[in-house]
């Protein structure tokens, strides 16, 4: 997904491509509002559900303004190998006749804006139920500018990872690894919820969670299918493999816990589905259906194991499992692109944009470089950002406020009044 921005005549705009990317843009925003909001909202305790909904809603607003002011320009402006320039500040130079490929550049900027919205919204799951609302807003601004924007430029905006040949169709590095690592660092810096590992903290409303998960599944067709930036076979294949991986991830996670604990759960199926979606994201334009099936199965297995290990063994309170699902899934999917985009794997061969790669080893190496660079930059920068935010406004509410619940403490509202 690369920007090709030229001031050309409006009659070069393809109406079919434009209509599809307009639809995809709405689908990606639908993933955050209401999909991710409800998915997260159902997973927290009843006294914190509104706070999570409010955080996701507000992140959408903050990210939109940051993207308009300078985020888009720094991500997709010409610039250099590390960061874009300021030529498109406040969307300067983007008009009705400005084209990116076969679609209006205004639409490309809007489509990318929805990615900039959902990525920090995913991070919310790492510090849910204990962070101050003001800290969320300041963190979002700084994190977008220092983490998300540069990595987007590295991969999609003409930066050094894209020049190396990194394959990331829809955001394995840009979205999922950054969000997962940021959530893990946030959980470590802010600390666990009071009573974590001693007091049961089950989801308060699985109906909301499953409904939100269904919305994520539907919205992901725009997330991955729209990243082809055209209504063509590449977009259609991306949608097909996205669906297959989601289904495989859901069934694998469900069966894994069925064997291990004796019963399948709705939470396991829904989380496995998200793991399958996140893991196929970087590969969705480069692999075929059989490859997607394998990726989905591996996603359900590895992300399930990572979730159990992180909480039960390491005792890290990544509240809503952002790192084991999105971080581990993003790493796994990014590396597997180097395998399943190969031309020599029979029915598992790549069938997308890449038209197949010839050397699995060299491509996996490029993918590994992209993973390591993304993890390191995100981890260090997120730690620094959290420390800076804590100097301006305390990151965490006090223990009494946490016990009362963030709905009342932060917003003077209740989700339920029964």
Going by helix content, strand content and strand pairing, the class is mainly alpha
* N-to-C CA distance: 48 Å
From the alpha carbons, calculate the radius of gyration and give it in angstroms. 20 Å
Beta-strand proportion: under 5%
Runs with pLDDT <50, length 5+? 3-8
Strand line-up of the largest beta sheet? 1-2-3
Number of strands: 3
Number of helical runs? 14
Largest sheet: 3 strands, antiparallel
What is the mean predicted local confidence, pLDDT?
Answer: 93
Overall shape = globular
Record keyword descriptors for this entry:
418 residues, mainly alpha, three-stranded antiparallel β-sheet, 14 helices, disordered N terminus
What is the fold's blueprint, element by element?
Elements: E1 5-7, H1 15-43, H2 49-76, E2 98-100, E3 103-104, H3 105-123, H4 133-156, H5 160-164, H6 172-190, H7 206-225, H8 233-261, H9 266-280, H10 289-313, H11 322-340, H12 360-392, H13 399-404, H14 406-411
Antiparallel strand pairs: 1-2, 2-3
Description:
This protein has 14 helices and three strands. It is mostly helical. A three-stranded antiparallel sheet has the order 1-2-3.
């Amino acid at each position: 997904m690369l920007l090709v921005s030229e001031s050309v005549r409006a009659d070069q705009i393809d109406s079919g491509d434009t209509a599809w990317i307009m639809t995809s843009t709405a689908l990606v925003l639908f993933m955050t509002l209401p999909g991710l909001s409800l998915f997260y909202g159902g997973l927290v305790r009843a006294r914190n559900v509104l706070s999570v909904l409010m955080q996701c809603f507000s992140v959408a607003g903050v990210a939109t303004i940051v993207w308009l002011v300078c985020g888009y320009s720094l991500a997709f402006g010409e610039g250099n190998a590390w960061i874009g320039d300021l030529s498109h500040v406040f969307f300067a130079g983007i008009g009705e006749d400005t084209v990116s490929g076969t679609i209006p550049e205004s639409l490309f900027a809007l489509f990318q804006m929805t990615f900039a919205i959902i990525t920090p919204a995913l991070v919310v799951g790492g510090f849910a139920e204990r962070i101050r609302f003001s800290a969320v807003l300041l963190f979002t601004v700084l994190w977008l500018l220092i983490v998300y924007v540069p990595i987007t430029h590295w991969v999609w905006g003409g930066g050094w990872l894209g020049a190396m040949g990194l394959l990331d169709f829809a955001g394995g590095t840009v979205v999922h690894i950054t969000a997962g690592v940021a959530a893990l660092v946030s959980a470590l810096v802010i600390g666990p919820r009071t009573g974590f590992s001693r007091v049961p903290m089950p989801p308060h409303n699985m109906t909301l969670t499953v409904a939100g998960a269904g919305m994520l599944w539907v919205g992901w067709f725009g997330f991955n299918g729209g990243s082809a930036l055209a209504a063509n076979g590449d977009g259609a294949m991306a949608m097909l493999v996205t669906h297959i991986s989601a289904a495989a991830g859901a069934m694998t996670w469900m069966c894994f816990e069925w064997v291990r604990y004796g019963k399948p759960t709705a939470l396991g199926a829904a989380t496995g589905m998200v793991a399958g979606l996140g893991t196929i994201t970087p590969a969705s334009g480069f692999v075929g259906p059989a490859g997607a099936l394998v990726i989905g199965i591996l996603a359900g297995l590895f992300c399930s194991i990572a979730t159990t290990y992180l909480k039960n063994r390491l005792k890290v309170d990544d509240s809503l499992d952002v790192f084991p699902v999105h971080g581990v899934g993003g790493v796994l999917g990014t590396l597997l692109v180097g395998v399943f985009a190969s031309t020599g794997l029979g029915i598992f061969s790549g069938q997308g944009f890449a038209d197949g790669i010839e050397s699995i080893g060299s491509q996996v190496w490029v993918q590994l470089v992209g993973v390591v660079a993304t993890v390191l930059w995100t981890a260090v920068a997120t730690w620094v950002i959290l420390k800076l935010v804590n100097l301006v406004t305390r990151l965490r509410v006090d223990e009494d406020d946490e016990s009362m619940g963030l709905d009342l403490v932060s917003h003077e509202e209740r989700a339920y009044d029964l």
